[in-house]
Predict the 3D structure of the following.
Amino acid sequence: MLIPLSGWLTARFGARPVFLSAIAIFTLASVACAASTSLGVLVAMRVLQGAGGAMMVPVGRLVVLSKTRKPDIPRIMSYIVWPGLVAPVAAPLLGGIITTYATWQWMFLLNIPLGIGAFFVAWRLITTTAGPRPGRLDTGGVVLTGVALGGLTYAAHLLSEPHAAVPLVVAIIAVSAVAGAIAVRHLLKTAAPLINLGTLQVRTFRASVTGGALFWLTAGAVPFLLPLLFQEIFHWSPVKSGAIVLFVFVGNIGIKPATTYLLNRFGFRTLLLASTVGLTATVIACCFLTADTPVALIALVALLSGVARSVGLTGYSTMAFSDTPRRTTCATRTRCSRPPSKRQPA
């Protein structure tokens, strides 16, 4: 719900303070999660943790892209996408080890050294310069997009329950859809909208947002659904389940060095079509897995899924900014200049 707000906050306060605040909020919320003594407190602290995370990813991407030349975008996007590919895949194994040999609190305590390290690195590397102040906050856009996105997320949660209240789910989806439609109309007519939908006029950016969203939904589901399949249906241990899911990570990393070459050699259309077909095929293959399926074959399916996942997400993320005007990819109030030459120290 808060991701759309990150652009305005960056323009209003600058990328550096917003990014540092996001890291601090996320890290402190992790401490609070570990110290939670009830489910209600844990959920509330997870919401706070999500608020910090909502500012980190988009603002961090703006900071990087504001100093990246167009020819360097494919290589840079490979580095940006890499953590998002690795974390959901490595998490099942790490979580399985923690829950088996330690306590659940360590899942959150691990974020403390990571957060402290990220804070000082960002403090040292990110610079902010004065720039034009944005207009007043589009409060209507914040409310409408928040209701639409939050409602759809909550409806998805209700549908995952064993005995979902269908009338309630339908009502929430209807309200979210109406709020989303009103939000689109509002954003198109407002002079200073929370989200500039005009960027969708760029064909490659529009293709990345629409096709990329569907690809992300499928690719992002795999690291969550496989552990559920392995543990709840196959009755594997958390460690064994996480170890097999880790082969998705092997596929991610194994193909990553070749991603930029493949994009340059075959182009976006061919590579995205191939990665989409590959991802679809591996997801369908997962439907036929059973507890008697050889572990080596399951690992192979996971590995090929990781390859398709890595190539597709890097391609969509790169294409989003290939034709986008530079002024729209530069974080406001962040120094937006050419990167240093090879003769100058980075």
In short: The chain has two domains: 3-137+194-329, 138-193. Residues 331-346 have pLDDT under 50 and may be disordered. Residues 138-193 form one domain.
